[in-house]
Design brief:
By secondary structure, the chain is mainly β. A hairpin with a 2-residue loop joins strand 2 and strand 3. It contains one helix and six strands. The longest helix has 6 residues. About 5% of the residues lie in helices and about 35% in strands. The protein has a domain of about 60 residues.
Length: about 90
C-alpha cells in the first residue's frame, strides 16, 4: 500500500463519523494515529489511525472519518492502533 502524506489534524478539532454524527474532539495526535475524547461528563478515549480521516466535515467544522458512529462505538478502539512495520500506514482492524 502506498504511503499517504496526511496533514495531522489540530488538537480540539471536532471529529464526525461518516453518518454525520459527532464522535468527539481530538485530544492528541501521534505518528500514525489520533486520540479522540468522547463525552462531556464521563470521558472515554478512542484511538483511530490517521488514514481513517476522509476529509473535512461539511461546513469545515472538523474532520470526517470513514466509519459510522456505531462502528466506532462498537469497535475496539481503546488502544492505539498497531502499526505495520513495513510501511508508514497504520492498520485498521
Amino acid at each position: 500500500m502506498p504511503t499517504t502524506n496526511i496533514t495531522p489534524p489540530e488538537l480540539g478539532t471536532h471529529v464526525f463519523a461518516s453518518d454525520g454524527e459527532e464522535i468527539g474532539k481530538i485530544s492528541d495526535v501521534q505518528p500514525g494515529y489520533f486520540q479522540i475524547k468522547k463525552g462531556t461528563f464521563r470521558h472515554t478515549e478512542v484511538y483511530l489511525p490517521l488514514t481513517a480521516i476522509t476529509g473535512t466535515a461539511l461546513g469545515g467544522d472538523g474532520v470526517m472519518v470513514e466509519m459510522t458512529k456505531d462502528e466506532v462505538e462498537s469497535g475496539d478502539w481503546s488502544q492505539p492502533p498497531a502499526t505495520d512495520t513495513g510501511s508508514d500506514e497504520t492498520a485498521l482492524p
